[in-house]
Amino acid sequence: MSNPIESLLAQHSLAILDGALATELEARGCDLKDPLWSAKVLIEQPELIYAVHYDYFAAGADVAISASYQATFEAFASRGFSTEQSAGLMRQAVQLAVNARDDFWHSLNADQQSRRPRPLVAASVGPYGAMLADGSEYRGHYDLDENELMAFHRPRLEVLLSAGADLLACETLPCLSEARALARLMDAHPDACGWISFSCSSEEHNSQGERLSDCVAALESFHSVVALGLNCTAPEHVSALLQSVQGLTDKPVLVYPNSGEQYDAEQKCWHGPANSEQYAQAAARWHHHGARLIGGCCRTSPADIAAVSALLRPAE
Asked: What are phi and psi of 93, to 5 degrees?
């Protein structure tokens, strides 16, 4: 098993992840009020997904996360897609990111390529709760045990592992049992590696209420897990969460929280300020507290990633 994150961080002090995909697609006119969420755009306007990936690379991202977060066999089947068609859409999600990465890289001259890492593509593996489309990824307490969660994730993992990504992004996980299920699946596959990222509800706990420190310690022994951290979390919680896991893992720690705006579930809209420079300053604090991979989740944009890159990208 190769470890692309280890290789990247061996030469660069920091890896910059991309930002939000779904809310950026909404900003570009997509209607995602749908259980498939961003996976809906895979069917209707895949060229927009390519464009968002490309813009994040141009902003300085070293890693793109594919539009497969909510792409599951169960969700596609509810729309009448066959197993073969569903697998094809998952592979397409990865290929769009790969194509954007390759096109962007080939647009750079040799000097530009020498000053940054060749970007990676991470295939997004969203949680079981994302398939339910009822907010369960922010609550946890599933009705499935660890083995049942493995059975749910196994078919999609096998497709995504063969789709051409550099690694998996197992993200927005609300609980340790789902993280362990995914880590066990990756450990059982000779070519699999990926990161594990929890959604967190406080300065100490994941969304189900478990201590993030306990989760990180429990995942340390899985060789296929190449980074650990959090995403889709309020940015004001991140520094304390990072401090809570210091010394508990030798794996690089990643953070890609939300922009800081607040979501109104009743009105289905966002409120509050969004400021790229403030986000970049916060990212600098997260780096100081030990984060080696930093990006953005909901409501972050290429402008935010450009600000992070401008502030944190060292002259290497």
From this structure: -60, -45
